[in-house]
Amino acid sequence: MAELHPRRSPRPSGEGLTGFSFERRVLLGGLAIALPMTLLCGVLLWRSGSSGLAWSVFALALAATLILATRLRHQVVYPLYTLSNLLEALREGDYSLRGSRGSRRDAIGDVVWEVNTLSQTLRDQRLKVEETSALLGKVIAAIDIGLFSFDDEHRLRLINRAGERLISQRAGAALGRPASALGLDDLLAIDGSATLKRAFGGSSGRWDVRRFTVREGGKPHDLLVVTDLSRALREEERQAWQRLIRVLGHELNNSLAPIKSMAGTLSSMLAVRPLPEDWSEDAEHGLRVIGDRADALGRFMVGYSTLARLPPPRRQPVELEPLLRRVVALEQRLPVQLGDGPALTISLDPDQIEQALINLVKNAVEASLPQHGAVALRWSGGGESVRIEVLDEGLGLSSSDNLFVPFFTTKPGGSGIGLVLARQIVEAHGGALTLEDRRDRRGCVARIELPLQ
After folding, report:
1. What Rg value do the Cα atoms of the chain yield, rounded?
2. What is the tens place of the pLDDT at every residue in 113-156?
3. Which of 34, 109, 324, 330 sits CB 3.0–4.6 Å from 103 for a disulfide?
4. Which residues contact 265 (CB under 8 A, 6 or more apart)?
């Protein structure tokens, strides 16, 4: 790249301690270097009475000294002009200029090389910032969450497409308007986050509003993030109804189909005259089938009521080890091994937690019995939480998709509410229930995490 030409800028008068500019001081400094020798030669020539030729040579030497001093000034000042132009370009955001003498061979070349490197670094960083800003702009425009940014005077400075739909205004008309004119002034009074029920753009619903404080140009700005919860809640509600209706339909069909079939069979049998000799036995069997299916429907409704009307836990300080020993003692089909653990006292509802553990131990025993496996109950923890695990040696989990779907069961005669009820109890205590396959051997582990406080 060609060397940048010097560009003089107006300078205030009186620069430097002597009132001379830097360029003149360099020139005078170069002349001052040769001044003593020049004076000495002149004095010697004057005292020796030299001829005109000697004085002519002396004049040529003075001219050569002036020329060399001017050349020295040029060599010192022009690289500084180049650096000045490069730095001015950086200050104005132009990172395309480069100095032509950037090298590691001398001091000036080293400075030019560093400025060139700085220019390239700033260019790369600006390119990354622009690419990131473009990507962020695309993401902000694409997400279905309303974003609003207000300055320190509560005037709108940023809005995305979802925000435009919320206030029913285009960005061009909304930018610069105060929050009160946009109907968003109440959201700016929120401290942190809140869930509100209000109307946006003529449609009402539940909204999650979060307010963040950011700084731009040294001034505080408010960033509002508005999320429509109604749509997500409606979708979750729709899926829950679909799962419930599917399970209800499955259970009702399982009970009503044999009842209808058996009722039709009995009606056909009783319509025959004379009646068969064993008609009473067939009628008794048919009525017994109808009664069994009616009992199954009754148990189904009891289970549904249990899930729907689970009371909140009545917490009290409970020692964990005696509670676990009571649960183990209730299982008679298979000896359940109780491991060793720390002595812990937890605030919980003992009746509900005991019922949840009974359900988990019952499932573990029923999974291990066909495989002649063992069941173990152990606990650990301290500090802020406690972990209770029920381990079996059954076949493991075939599928985890429907484990916690109410009334879904793969066991003959199962109600399908044991796991659901256990998880509901644990979550009511602020904990979590998970099921997964064991890693050390075949089987399953049901893990309960409960807070100590």
Report:
1. 45
2. 888 888 888 888 888 888 888 888 888 777 888 889 899 888 99
3. 109
4. 282, 286
DSSP state, residue 384? T
Model's pTM, two decimal places? 0.43
Pair of tokens at residue 12: 């205030």
Element (H, E) at 184: none
CA distance 220 to 226: 20
Instruction: Copy the structure tokens of residue 421.
Output: 């009820």
pLDDT, tens digit, 9 for 90 and up, residues 207-228: 888 888 888 878 888 888 888 8
CATH number of the domain residue 385 falls in: 3.30.565.10
H helices present in 153-228, as ranges: 161-167, 171-174, 179-182
Rounded to whole angstroms, the Cα distance separating 70 from 67 reads: 5
Strand partners, 209: 194, 226
d(CA 296, CA 305): 14
Same domain, 45 and 109: yes
183 plus 237 within the same structural domain: no
Q: Are residues 227 and 242 in the same domain?
A: no
Kindly state whether residues 174 and 251 are assigned to the same domain. Answer: no
Residues 227 and 240 in one domain: no
- The residue length of the chain stands at 453
Cα(94)–Cα(119) distance, integer angstroms: 9
Hey, is 409 helix, strand or coil? coil
The verdict on 386 and 433 lying in the same domain is yes
Beta bridge partners of 379: 388
In a shared domain, residues 211 and 221: yes
User: What pairs with residue 364 in β-bridges?
Assistant: none
DSSP 349-368: -HHHHHHHHHHHHHHHHHHH
Residue 2 within a domain: no
Token duo for residue 211:
């307010």
- How many domains are there within the chain? 4
71 and 27 Cβ atoms separated by less than 8 Å = no
Range of the domain at 167: 141-231
